[in-house]
Amino acid sequence: MNAPDHVLWCHLPIVPGRYDIKTDWAKPVQATEGYYPVVPASYRVQDIFDRVASRYDESLPGMFLPDVLDPTVDFLAELAGNGPVLELGIGTGRVALPLVEKGISVHGIDLSQAMVERLRAKPGGDAVEVTIGDFATTKVEGDFSLAYLVFNTITNLTTEDAQVDCFANVAKHLEPGGVFVIENFIPTLHRLQPGEKVVPIHVTPTRLHFDEYDVANQTLVSHHYRVVDGQLELLSTPHRYVWPSELDLMARHAGMTLRERWATWTREPFTSTSPSHISVWEKTA
Prior knowledge:
Blueprint: E1 18-20, H1 45-52, H2 56-59, H3 66-80, E2 85-88, H4 96-101, E3 106-110, H5 113-120, E4 129-132, E5 144-149, H6 160-173, E6 174-185, E7 198-204, E8 207-214, E9 219-228, E10 231-239, H7 244-253, E11 256-262, E12 276-283
Parallel strand pairs: 2-3, 2-5, 3-4, 5-6
Antiparallel strand pairs: 1-10, 6-12, 7-8, 8-9, 9-10, 11-12
Helix pairs in contact: 6-7
């Protein structure tokens, strides 16, 4: 029996792994390491990133497009001045390596050794000093003109305390007048109907992404189903969503004040309908 491509995902049993869409759409095949349809009780952020590191870049081709990456790098380079700068959650170096190419010294913190190994394998990767650890608490030597946290990574810290600790840790690493930049999404609670908890983010014949909200605890689980080379990959990760005003309060407690906020890296105005924000806080103490 054959099923149309656009409904295959709903016929598959929800167990971890990868499924052959054309021949095994009704039964599981060998699991693909690193992909979970539900969040395991023993979940650790580094476990997920260690397991998906080998194809992390390939799974996000749009994030490497010049019209996406170039404005990010230009924005950060302008704030960095002569550096050095600190990237939290440096990963495979998507942002760090272009900054290095501009002559800016970058130090990174990341939990995943496997992600950092991918960074090291790229041209210029050896020029980036990386400390393995939790960026909410890990300390490195030196003072920095800029620290930054992009691509919604603040939400990988799944408690309020961890997010508060992150701001305090950044403040300790910034020189006087240094700045902290966060790129993050705006929670889409306005799209939830009464009694519902799921918001579709991306729905195509080869990709399904939806967020499952727990409003009482201010958390969500982000579910991803993706068809790659005729097989279905499943991945779910927990997050703590956070509002811009809440981040402003965390910054204030850490001795920083909001300097600017934009909707995009190209400095489009931030409004009540913006789906994300780029916020810049300055160390004032």
